[in-house]
Amino acid sequence: MQLTVGKVAKLVDGTHQMDGSLVINSLSTLKDAQKDSLSFFINPKYEKALYESNAAAVLVSNNFKPRKALKNVIYVNDPYTSWAQILELFERETAQIKTGIEEPVSIDQTSHIGKDIYIGAFSYLSAGCRVADGVKIYPQVYIGENVSIGTDTVIFPGVKIYGNSVIGNHCTIHAGAVIGSEGFGFAPQNGGSLKRIPQIGNVVLGDHVSIGANTTIDRATVNSTRIEAGVKLDNLVHIGHNVVIGKDSAVAAQAGIAGSATIGENCLFGGQVGVVGHVDVANKTQISPKGGVMSSIQQEGRVLLGAPVMDFTHTKKVWVTWKKLPEMMKRLEELERKL
Questions:
Q1: Cα distances (angstroms) measured from residue 98 to each of 90, 135, 181
Q2: Rounded to a whole number, what is the distance in angstroms from the first to the last CA of the chain?
Q3: According to the 3-state scheme, what is the secondary structure of 40-63?
Q4: How far apart, in Å, are the Cα atoms of 188 and each of 185, 192, 199, 243?
Q5: What is the C-alpha separation between 240 and 276, in angstroms, rounded?
Q6: Beta partners for residue 119, in sequence order
Q7: Cα–Cα distance between 57 and 67 in angstroms, integer?
């Protein structure tokens, strides 16, 4: 795919002072860029690479003040967002468009299949499924009874969607994800055994939800486990039964959220965050990697760290003190001997 610098600038509402007819043939990092590449710069740690880059053009923030003269920059409001726009354009132009129904597949006669869809080989659609227009189902996908899948959703190979799940419009579910598996519910008995509690609810995904590879979302005991519109779940995330995650929140890899926890809107959870069950987390909460949420968080917009989580600044002070404990202990012992 070819774009000119002028076309790129127009697409991202940017400004430039270089030759607008210069051709862009590829996208690349600053370090690996060639003379026909477009790249982007946002992190100050890569400023040296910016000055050394061979890129034909680089997306930079309007607020960036270079320490050296640069002739190959396109100024934009948000380089990361502009970079995403260009990546989307390249993706559309270079992607292989899949259409039609491959063989062999199994589609129950009671299922309803929309227009302009793709269903890959060895996929299985159970009774009562509703697949809207523009959906792409890659090979070896299992879809249980009465599942509803919204417009233009993409389901990659090996996904398993249990019965009665509801998948919104424009969702992406990556390979190996399991939606609607049984919630982890067992009642302790007097003799020490565990009695299974049937999980008869479902999972509901809102529009524009992204589910990472090998992520699992348990169905509710009753009612629904709900992942609201715009939520992004990374690979290897586990969501327990009856959890609610508010819109536009993001959860990084290997995080786990236990049953009946309610996560607010616009929350950001780092990798390996753990959340106990039956707690509420306020909107716009940020949890650093490996954070442990042991109780409800009521105040919006807090940045938390540690296990259990505490205020980010306070926790850093605690950790500084903790590192000094051996030295402090030694001094205390010396004082005790003198006394």
A1: 17, 10, 28
A2: 80
A3: ECCCHHHHHHHHHCCCCEEEEECC
A4: 10, 6, 16, 22
A5: 10
A6: 101, 137
A7: 17
Q: What is the pLDDT of residues 277-309, one digit of tens each?
A: 999 999 999 999 999 999 999 999 999 998 888
Q: Are 99 and 115 in contact (CB under 8 A)?
A: no
Residue 256: per-residue pLDDT: 97
Catalytic residues: 241
Spell out the residues 6+ positions from residue 152 whose beta carbon is closer than 8 angstroms to its own: 132, 133, 134, 135, 169, 170
Q: Which amino acid is at 40?
A: F
Q: Which among 220, 221, 216, 219 is positioned nearest to 233, based on CA atoms? A: 216
User: Cα torsion at 301, 306, 307, 309 (round to 10°)?
Assistant: -20
279 residue type, one letter: V
Q: How far apart are CA 124 and CA 127, in angstroms?
A: 10
Backbone torsions φ then ψ of 159, nearest 5 degrees: -70, 145
Could you please report the per-residue DSSP string of 200-231? --EEEE-TT-EE-TT-EEEPPSSSEEEE-TT-
Q: Measure the CA angle with vertex 252, ends 198 and 256; round to 5°.
A: 30
Q: CB–CB of 141/155 below 8 Å?
A: yes
pLDDT at position 223 over 90 = yes
Q: Report the pLDDT value the prediction gives residue 68, as an integer from 0 to 100.
A: 86
What's the full length of the chain, in residues?
339
- The answer to whether 246 touches 266, Cβ cutoff 8 Å, is yes
Distance CA 38, CA 60 (A): 11
For residue range 56-89, what is the model confidence (pLDDT) as tens digits?
999 999 999 888 888 889 999 999 999 999 999 8
With beta carbons less than 8 A apart as the criterion, state whether 148 and 130 touch: yes
pTM reported for the whole predicted model: 0.87
What would the pLDDT profile of 104-125 be if each residue is shown by its tens digit? 999 999 999 999 999 999 999 9
Enter the tokens of residue 176. Answer: 């190996």
Residue 86 contacts residue 8 (beta carbons within 8 Å)? yes
Return the bridge partners of 38, or none.
27, 57
Q: In 3-state terms, what secondary structure has residue 305?
A: strand
Separation of alpha carbons 283 and 156, rounded Å: 31
